[in-house]
Specification:
The chain is of the alpha+beta class and 107 residues long. The chain is built from five helices and three strands; from the N terminus they run H-H-E-H-H-E-E-H. Strands 1-3-2 form a three-stranded antiparallel beta sheet.
Length: 107
């Protein structure tokens, strides 16, 4: 498999692709939906909510956190996560911009 030529694309296109890749897993979508509903979460709550193993949840949380969609704080021996509102709005704007480019003028 070849190396992706990200230099051929705009910064916006590369950022949108990165976000789409991170959100391209149903467990991550479920995590984001859960965090959106309750506005904060302790990692162990996600294990009960989603029925996935702790290690699996942790890996998905790490991916979401690395791209900045969620943020976390340490509370004793637990991590509490929430949606990063600034990044969430950036993601929303990128996706909205993509969808708004469609002019519905095809055959």
């Amino acid at each position: 498999m070849g190396v992706t030529r990200t230099d051929l694309f705009t910064e916006q296109q590369n950022e949108l692709a990165k976000i789409a890749r991170i959100l391209g897993h149903p467990a991550r979508i479920a995590i984001v939906q859960h965090l959106s509903r309750i506005n904060a979460c302790i990692n162990s709550d996600l294990v009960q909510e989603l029925g996935l193993a702790q290690a699996t949840i942790s890996q998905h949380l790490k991916e979401l956190k690395n791209v900045g969609i969620i943020q976390g704080t340490v509370e004793g021996s637990s991590m509490s996560y929430c949606i990063n509102a600034t990044k969430w709005n950036e993601c929303k704007d990128l996706l909205t911009g993509l969808f708004d480019e469609y002019k519905n003028e095809c055959c």
